[in-house]
TrEMBL record:
Superkingdom field: Eukaryota
Entry function: Forms part of a macromolecular complex that catalyzes the attachment of specific amino acids to cognate tRNAs during protein synthesis.
Reactions mediated catalytically: tRNA(Arg) + L-arginine + ATP = L-arginyl-tRNA(Arg) + AMP + diphosphate
Alphabetical keyword list: Acetylation, Aminoacyl-tRNA synthetase, ATP-binding, Ligase, Nucleotide-binding, Protein biosynthesis
Name of this protein: arginine--tRNA ligase
The keyword Aminoacyl-tRNA synthetase is annotated on this UniProt entry: yes
Similarity field: Belongs to the class-I aminoacyl-tRNA synthetase family.
Residues annotated as domain DALR anticodon binding: 486-601
Amino acid sequence: VTESAAAASSTEMTQNADTIGSVRQQLANLMRESLRATVPELDGEEPIVSACNNPKHGDYQCNNAMGIFSKIKGKSTSFKNPNAIGQAIARNLPESTMVEKTSIAGPGFVNIVLKTDWIEEKIYRMLVDGVRTWAPVLPVKKAVVDFSSPNIAKEMHVGHLRSTIIGDCLAKMLEFCHVEVLRRNHVGDWGTQFGMLIEYLFDQIPNWEDIGDQAIGDLQAFYKAAKVKFDADADFRTRGQQAVVLLQGGDERYRAAWKKICDISRREFDQVYKRLQVTLEEKGESFYNPFIPDVVEQLRGKNLIVESEGAQVIQVDGYEIPLIVIKRDGAFNYATTDLTAFWYRVNVEKAELIVYVTDVGQAQHFDMVFKALKLAGWLPSEDQIPKSKHVGFGLVLGADGKRFRTRSSEVVRLVDLLDEAKTRSKDELISRGKDKEWSEEEVEAAAEALGYGAVKYADLKNNRLTNYTFDFDQMLDIRGNTAVYLLYAHARICSILRNSKKDIEELKKVNSIQLAHPSERVLGLHLVRFAEVVEESVTNLLPNTLCEYLYSLAGLFTDFYTNCKVIDSDEETSRLLLCEATAVVMRECFKLLGITPLYRL
Ligand code: ARG
């Protein structure tokens, strides 16, 4: 850990109250002052503030009283029970423009009701200054998100699709919070399979240097054929193994062949990234190769590496098997590369947070790597920088409840899968006559937004650790909790705004938002919670939190629109601005989820 990184972790996030986007953070700052006054003996007690579970009790609550009571019980005589502490916390809360009133419930929960005019003002400022001004403050400034990361020449499967979708969303949320994000594609471009592939290339296509990439055709089939030969032919196997040595030794011809194979794979991956509009910067396993010997030496210097059955390993707590760093044949492996990549990311790239997005099957690998890094003193305890997190996710299942496969039980080509989502959406638009109303480009664009958006949202809306069932009918249903439903909800708000024939930019010149009707206030409160939801979602690395927020937002808007007349009502200006604010926040949610918003449907 560098010294500056350690120092950064302890810097308290102090910011002018009015510029903080997150209402929860803003209330927590007020509460911090109250706690300091209430229990000065507990230096720097961290406020626990959350949205009220039951809206009847209030908008937010502070849950510190019970914890404080158990800490000071017997030591202080000033409070006889948690409730008394809650009373004091409420009394000591500094005057502010945001809090209307407080009340104490049960064992000292402090319920807080926000001032409605404060919510109104906050929404209005967001409309004028932009939703980016609501970005929450995070304790890190630079992060690596290691995601997608397919393996060259092998299949890019639905697991990589999940990694791509989840990783992109996490990167976007971090970016929204002003974190500099290095979007890393840690492709598997190194390893023993390349020896076999290169020899097979030399055998099958002697003039491989002169002909285009098409020569290899389907790289996956090529890989399979090479593997068959490798398993059956001892001679070929020996050549394959020697090829690895030549490649790693830097032999020019082998390097060129390796590069050719990587390029072909890369082009296939790019087809997927282009459709999903995901940007990644490739730093594959091979990139870290030159740094490995030094990192291994450093670990050796810390006496962490021991000999076990001919291999060099690190023993980590809680596992019978050790983490292998150098294999019996002298080669480095997946773990060695991850130890080295961590070293590089922290020391060269100065990342304060490193997030790895892979299926949960790799949880043990990362746990062992993190434990080894802790032993090395490179990864500090939880609340310090740098932080390292494995973001695991469950399987993608087919309708039969088994691992997702196509009918022919062959692997699913991701490009085909995405194209089918688009085609189905396009057919639906055409069946609704949109091809007569819109230009060809508009139909295409809408079909892409709906189709790709549906695939992404279906993936993101569930807790990532659970398996999810890939079902086109379900994800494209306009009535469910789907991207299609949400895109329609947004387009409907846009059509209300259009139908009003009012210029929203003109309306914005007057501060006139009023949350008078209960449905308006509920909607308004939900809107100002956007920042803390992003904060929660990104802190826990759980995109489903943001999806739930967006889905509720659409529902609350429907309630509002059902209960409150907008166009030609006395409150028209205020209500149109509330429509606009809802649309703005919905669009920001779409953006963070990687979904392209549609303005009419
Ligand atoms: N290539 C790996 C796979 O397909 C994922 C790599 C994840 N990132 C890492 N730093 N290990 O399973």
